[in-house]
Amino acid sequence: MKIVGKGIGKIDGMAIATGKPVYTDDLVMANALVIKLLRSPHAFAKIIAIDITKAEKIPGVACILTYKDVPNVRFTVAGQSYPEPSPYDRLILEKIVRYVGDEVAIIAAVDERAAIKAMKLIKVEYEVYEPVLDFETAKGHASVVHPETDLHCNFDIGMKQQLNVTSSQYLEVGNVEEELKACAVVVEDTNYIQAQAHCMMETYRAFSYLDHAGRLVVVSSTQIPFHVRRKLARSLEIPSSKVRVIKPRIGGGFGGKQTVVMEFFTALVTLKTGKPAKLIYDREETFSCSNSRHAMRLKVRIGADTDGYIRAIDIQGLSDTGAYGEHASTVFMVVGQKTLPLYNKTNAVRFMGDVVYTNKMPGGAFRGYGATQGTFGLEAAINKLADKLNMDPTELRLKNLIKAGESSLISQGKLLGSSTLHQCIEKGKELIGWAEKYPKPVVIGNKVRAVGMAVTMQGSGIANIDTASAEVRLNDDGNYTLLIGSTDMGTGSDTILAQMAAEILETDVEKIIVNASDTDVSPYDPGSYASSTTYVTGMAVVKAAEELRQKIIEKGAAFLEVLATEVEFDGKVVRTLTGEKELSLEKLAERMVLGLGKLQLVGNGTYGSPVSPPPYVAGFAEVEVDTDTGKVSLIDYVAVVDCGTVINPNLARIQVEGGIVQGIGMALYEDVRYGEKGKLHTNNFMQYKIPCRKDIGRIRVVFEESFEPTGPFGAKSVGEVVTNTPAPAIVHAVYNAVGVRINRLPITPEKVFLGLQYKK
Amino acid sequence: MEIEVILNHKPVTLTAEKDEFLADVLRRHGLLSIRKGCNTACCGLCTVWLEGKPTLSCNILAIRATGKEIITIEGIAEEADEFANILVAEGAEQCGFCSPGFIMTVIAMKKELENPSEAEIVHYLTGNLCRCTGYMGQLRAVKTYLEVK
To answer: Is the reported ipTM for this assembly greater than 0.95?
Structure first.
């Protein structure tokens, strides 16, 4: 392969690196109204009265909108294909407010000063209710977070509104309780995962305006333009044909922007006033009024026989979806779905539990999407099992993990197409120095060093649901335009998709113009989430490029007056196999568009996969624990990755390193704290610490490529899987160092210190 | 009020409110490389050079720049491109949103430190947060740029 597998720079790299005006806020027209949102100070309350008369008199105020001004149509903000499995439990603004920060009023004015001044003059009278703040007591709580009668679910997700249960799930294959009884060794471990914040550097933002045809145009920093269009149409009661959504360059997403956080507000203001309007969330709003990872409690029980074969796995979960149920059931489902297939020597497995409503910021999609939580719960328990079996945890895994060509109890008979996970473990052991460093810690004074490990899987796209289309067009000048609807959020997907098209058309990436993420222009794509773009959109691009290639050959042959089987195409020229006659691509393009051909050549591809091939990571951590203070320093992290064929090694490596560091943040630093009345205290970078350069030690990434038979050029996904191993591997390393098993993330010095005291 | 500054090598009169921060005034002046990521002086996205020193423009009132020299990435396009090329070749710009501020700090470091060690590099750049890359690729790019082996 000439272009696939090359670490070329991103096609937009120089523009975004040097600050060119290509992001949402850089594109706003000068006269746009500025929007501010008045938010609830209460975790749970009903608006009794709202008085905007004084606020409206502030010069420059264009409109102030309250719950009285929005359509009474419930919807979900979850960016999922229709019909969404998330409950329709929201209105744009509502009389009931369900968390501190829930929107109460929209204020639009000519500038920010006027909007803020007006916001302060809005008088709201609340009837304050007892909020549900502890997710472990939410079920059956006296307060019902969603008492409304018009809440709607597209599917039976086990919603029990009166009990604050958003979704209830039960999946069992075999008889877990019986199997556990028969096991020689059983371990149980309960772990808590916090509501990690995405902290993409570009906060949520959008602007909207009416175009020359009076249609609503929304430019948004989103991962899901087509879902945004559909949801705006529903929630604003306007035809979808009157809405256009454009995604420019965006400053990170990590799943946060797989939820329609705020486009409704700008759209509503533009529709009400006819004027352009913009809304930019500041960092505090982004922390406390958008979405986060779902906080969970996972109780895991694992049973094994005396030979160390794992025979039963039971995962009982409780997930906190906060005030609204976007992604509630699906994130929870993935906890089981992306963990239970790993250890396939089992006779019985079970995943069960509830997702509950509370009066806190909603959970949402976050890189890993439940697999992160599931991996932490399962791998912590696996490490505990190794301990109890007195077995090397790497050996335990090598013995029990699924291999290519095998199936698992929950795989419904489907065989695993590709995996190098066993090689990943061997390679990782070698790189971290496992043989020398495990299990004996090295003690130097008050510093103790040890290693730990974990493995994980994810998927590549959502099987049988998400389907993407792509189009490649041969232009009049012999260049190509690649049209896609996926949403590069900095990952470089526009670039790697162009690499795939270029590979098939045997041309240079420079000859391919990429046009993406505009609902008026792009072929349909659900958006970039669920680790789908390389795999699902990639296959659509491959099909489109192959179709176009075939058309070039056919039309070229026709012009050369021979059969299609009598010519070859090398990317530049269509030539007869005998070498007698040839036609350049440029000439062919020109003739097709302008002259005799009268048919612009276009290749189309649509792809949705019946399987979601898992990428794998084996992660190894070496930590140093200060026994005087409990502080854990990460010394070294080794991640060995099977993402199938690596399409662009440089971009893939950065994806891995970035995901690992986000996982390190979750493991060691990113603490989420709420006040007694439900206010999020960790709502800025002073209170909520994401890793900086000094916090991460050394990170080493190695790819152990497999070849996924269903993927483009053998590729699988890489974006999400990489964030899952740090938390369980680091917890394991800390345990191996000082014997303190942390069950509640993050691993703060206080927790380790207290653990050490308790041990004494 | 009006503030006289030397902005990207040229004398310029900026219009600003008394309580306005430099970052907002510069953006309004059309320098759209200036981004704000935090409001708490933690992230480094808004870094410009004030009198040659990397400074958080979101954390300094515009009026304090009166009579001073301000350089944004637009003012050192050639130098910025030189490092940006290396950064992009490494793939370490990712979403790019933090890159202008990061590049301003890297180039300032190159001018300030002679043959810095890895620890000195990390220390100098530690005020520039990045959520995408995990920093390792940025470090590789910086080392290539400084030709530190």
So the answer is: yes
